[in-house]
Write a structure and sequence with these properties.
34% helix; Rossmann fold; five-stranded parallel beta sheet; alpha/beta; 237 residues
């Protein structure tokens, strides 16, 4: 499907349609990657009637090309390096280490700001739907999946509104399943597939985390989507 989304909130509502087989389940939680993935994740959690939280991860920007990820770090001290980018741009390891240190400080700042003393939601033994606003290189999501494995969830499902087809296919193997609502080609960048792709503020993240995402009357679980043999399985659309 080639389409643009009005904004991240609409993208979340569209994505939730591809996840409706998980609606109302007590063993499912939704985690959003800050900052852009949080509004998407909130809409998904609200539509499914399941708990919602944030999962902290930071992209390591390449020197002079901050949008090009040379890796990522996540809560729990996990570091993922994109060797192809580092080697291709001949980035020194001193610069890599410097960027890791800088992003660790920002990760700590956001952890304190977003949580305000609240403990992270429990994911052990749960099916975790890990949500971002899109996947380009996938470096940030790789770090998130790797870090989340340490918390021993039953399954990790990566879910995004838009992604490159190659990256979406890659996450079918890295995670337990991956759903991408749209995989347009040529993909180029996540922001091209949103009419409004304004930066999400820390305040917006805090406001969404302070709101209950679960509906008081969670919807009835739906029948599995075509091609799914059970609610625990998923495929790209």
């Amino acid at each position: 499907m080639n389409r643009t989304f009005a904004d991240r909130r609409e993208a979340g509502r569209v994505l939730s349609e591809d996840l409706r087989s998980y609606a109302g389940r007590t063993d499912v939680v939704v985690l959003g990657l800050p900052r852009g993935g949080v509004p998407v994740a909130f809409e998904v959690a609200r539509a499914l009637g399941v708990p919602f939280d944030v999962f902290l991860v930071r992209k390591l920007g390449s020197p002079g090309q901050e949008e090009l990820a040379m890796g990522a770090i996540a809560s729990g001290g996990v570091v993922v390096i994109n060797d192809e980018v580092v080697d291709g741009l001949r980035i020194s390891w001193d610069l890599v280490d410097s960027e890791i240190a800088r992003q660790r400080m920002e990760l700590t700042r956001r952890e304190l700001l977003y949580r305000g003393g609240r403990r992270p939601i429990e994911v052990q033994g749960k099916i975790v739907i890990l949500v971002d606003d899109g996947l380009a290189t996938g470096s940030t999501m790789r770090a998130a999946v790797k870090a989340l494995r340490r918390r021993r969830p039953a399954q990790i499902l990566v879910a995004v509104p838009t992604a490159s087809s190659s990256t979406c296919h890659e996450f079918q193997k890295l995670a337990d399943a991956c759903i991408c609502s749209a995989t347009p080609e040529p993909f180029r960048a996540v922001g091209l597939w949103y009419e409004n792709f304004d930066q999400v503020s820390d305040q917006e993240v805090c406001d969404l985390l302070a709101r209950p995402a679960e509906r008081s009357d969670p919807p009835e679980p739906q029948a599995p989507l075509p091609g799914m043999s059970s609610p625990d399985q998923a495929a790209t659309t």
